[in-house]
Structures are given as C-alpha cells and as structure tokens.
Amino acid sequence: MNDFAGKIAVITGGGTGMGRELARALTAEGCSVALCDVSEAYMAETKLLCLADAPQGTMVTTFKADVAIDDLIIELANANFRDTAPMSSAEAAKVILDGVRAGKWRILVGKDAQFLDESVRADPENAYTAGFYKMLQAGGHFPAM
After folding, report:
1. pTM for this prediction
2. Which range marks the domain in which residue 47 is found?
3. Residue 42: which region, alpha, beta or left (left: phi > 0; alpha: psi -120 to 50)?
4. Distance (Å, whole) CA 5 – CA 16
5. Within-domain flag for 104
6. Residue 116 has what pLDDT?
7. Does residue 75 sit within a domain?
8. Rounded distance, CA 130 to CA 142, Å?
9. What is the pLDDT of residues 40-91, one digit of tens each?
10. How many domains does the chain contain in total?
11. How much helix, strand and coil, in percent to the nearest 5, is found in the chain?
12. 29 found inside a domain
C-alpha cells in the first residue's frame, strides 16, 4: 500500500474475500475503514482481524446493507465518518483518478461492469478465486495492467 495512513475507505463486500483482504491491508497501514456487507457475522470477524494488526487510532465500523438497494447506500454514505472524514469528495476523486492514471486501478463501466456484476451474481461462491479472475481475463474484460 502507498500512503493510506490517516485516510478513510468504504469497502462494500467487506465481510469476506477480496473485501476482507483489502480492509486488512488498508487498516494495517493506518487507514480507517467502513465495512459494508450483508453479513454482520462476517463483518465482525473482519473487524477483529483488521484491528489486530492496525495501528492505534485506526477505526473500523460496520454497516449491514445490500449494495443493490440504493436507499441503503445513501444511508451508508450519511452514516459513516460524515463528520470526521479527512478528505473532501474532490480529494477522494483525485486519489481514485491518480490510481487509475498510474495503472494501479481500473474504473469499470459499460459492458465490463455489467459482465462483472452478472458473473458474480451467477457464481458468488467462486467470485473470489483466481480461476474467476482468469475467466474474466479470458473473456477480454480485464486485461493485465
């Protein structure tokens, strides 16, 4: 990770899989996280794992929500870190765009985003495996960065 100390990240799907591992990596660097997932039990496990390796003062909050329900996402945005966020939305957008420009991240839109959503919904148990990612690459949706 690169300079995430003191920042805040909202992680959907933070209870298991890639979301959990991202939360663990970020909190180990001192980034506070707001976890969002449909499973309170899995988020509780993730929270314990994150705090075990996080520097003092790192915050981990949880919010039970299905990201397919717009009202719950709006509630999440209003609930977590609203008064203590160290970044404005413009600063957050800059962090995201800088990551994209540097080739570290990719913003999914159009057919890539739709294909990923449909694939995860069709096979959620396999969605966090290397084989799943290779299947996406083979379909031309995620070229190597």
Report:
1. 0.55
2. 8-87
3. alpha
4. 22
5. no
6. 76
7. yes
8. 13
9. 999 999 999 999 999 998 989 888 888 777 776 667 666 655 454 555 556 6
10. 1
11. 50, 10, 40
12. yes
